[in-house]
Design goal:
By secondary structure, the chain is of the alpha+beta class. The chain has 2 domains: about 90 residues, Arc Repressor Mutant, subunit A (Orthogonal Bundle), CATH 1.10.10.2910; about 70 residues, no CATH class. It is about 50% helix and about 20% strand. It is built from 6 helices and 6 strands. Helix 1 runs parallel beside helix 2, helix 2 crosses helix 3 and helix 5 crosses helix 6.
Length: about 160
């Protein structure tokens, strides 16, 4: 489902997506995304497609040489875009309410890989610090967990 939504987004952005034999998992260049046909699952393809679409939105030029600081920064920007696109803070709360009790279940619930989840949590920790508060919840990034604050009811005698 998420993969198809990303494909629709690519279409709306005039980005063509092809699955082909690649050395890497994915590649973006001039409005074309290539995804490796060796990826085993749709979940893996989703994570790679999100990152490559992130390159469309955030990168410019040839950034294949990852020894250059400017290219490393562009790679990070594209990955960060993917994390933000596939995971929102309210998704952690929804997963908590659904009953996810470990990272494997959380990744499955979010339809992302565990590796992508770990990297996203690290990104959110860099962005927000050790925790993020939303509604009556606190999302802790290290160690990862979601905690609900109970509402205090005022008693009238």
């Amino acid at each position: 489902m998420v993969y198809n939504q990303l494909l629709d987004e690519c279409y709306k952005c005039n980005v063509d997506v092809y699955e082909m034999d690649l050395i890497n998992h994915g590649l973006y260049s001039d409005g074309i995304i290539a995804i490796s046909n060796k990826l085993q699952t749709t979940v893996e393809r989703t994570c790679i497609l999100a990152e490559e679409l992130g390159h469309h939105h955030t990168s410019f030029g040839n950034i294949l040489d990852q020894t250059k600081v400017s290219n490393i920064k562009q790679e990070k920007r594209a990955r960060n875009w993917a994390y933000e696109r596939l995971i929102q803070m309210k998704d952690f709360i929804s997963a908590y309410k659904y009953g996810c009790s470990n990272k494997f279940e959380l990744a499955e619930y979010l339809t992302i890989t565990e590796e992508f989840l770990d990297e996203a949590i690290e990104y959110f920790k860099e962005k927000y610090g050790l925790f993020y508060r939303i509604y009556n919840y606190t999302i802790y990034f290290e160690p990862f967990g979601v905690f609900e604050k109970f509402q205090e009811k005022k008693h009238i005698p």
